[in-house]
Amino acid sequence: MLMPLERLRSILELLFREGVLVGERDGCPRRTHPQLPGVANVEVRRAMASLRSRGLVRQTAAWRHLYWYLTDAGVAHLRQYLRLPPDVVPRSLQRVPRPAAPRPEPRRAAATAGTGTYRARPAGGDRLYRRKDEGEGHVEPIAVTAGQGVSQVPPQ
């Protein structure tokens, strides 16, 4: 598809800047791309098809949208085509510096200190609040009779 070079250049600049490009599967030639004013969605799809056939972009389809991801060869090609310095990388390949978050206190330390949001457990565990019934230690045997299923033996 023939298109003016400034449109192709704007498509490639957006692709290199973000590292990912999204386009809607739409056959309407008049619909413009939402991120590129003045560029038709069909032109974006054709430019990406050209890059995909050369192995510079990987394509994924989901419902009515197509997603194009730059490969390493695509980054090198676009860096040369757009005449960019080697230290410039796409946003999808940049590492985001995350602030060092303080590590949370361990549960036991917070529970013993009494300052945390956790309640201290009793030393005996769950057994402290359960009452011991008289017949708790006694288990009644279960007898199986042929063809009748499971039944209990009457107490003696």
TrEMBL record:
Q: Please provide one cellular component term from the Gene Ontology annotations of this protein.
A: cytosolic small ribosomal subunit
Any Pfam family the entry gives: S10_plectin
Under the heading InterPro entries, the entry gives: Plectin_eS10_N, Ribosomal_eS10, WH-like_DNA-bd_sf
Domain Plectin/eS10 N-terminal, which positions?
3-95
Provide this UniProt record's keywords sorted from A to Z.
Answer: Ribonucleoprotein, Ribosomal protein
Molecular function GO labels: RNA binding; structural constituent of ribosome
Q: Gene3D superfamilies this protein is in?
A: Winged helix-like DNA-binding domain superfamily/Winged helix DNA-binding domain
Region (Disordered) residue spans: 92-156
List where Basic and acidic residues composition bias occurs.
Answer: 127-139
Q: Does the keyword Ribosomal protein apply?
A: yes
- List all Low complexity biased stretches: 109-125
- Give the record's family classification: Belongs to the eukaryotic ribosomal protein eS10 family.
Q: What is this protein called?
A: PLEC protein
**Naturally occurring in which organism (per UniProt):** Atrichornis clamosus
At the highest ranks, the source species' classification is: Eukaryota, Metazoa, Chordata, Craniata, Vertebrata
As recorded in Swiss-Prot or TrEMBL, the protein's gene is named Plec_3
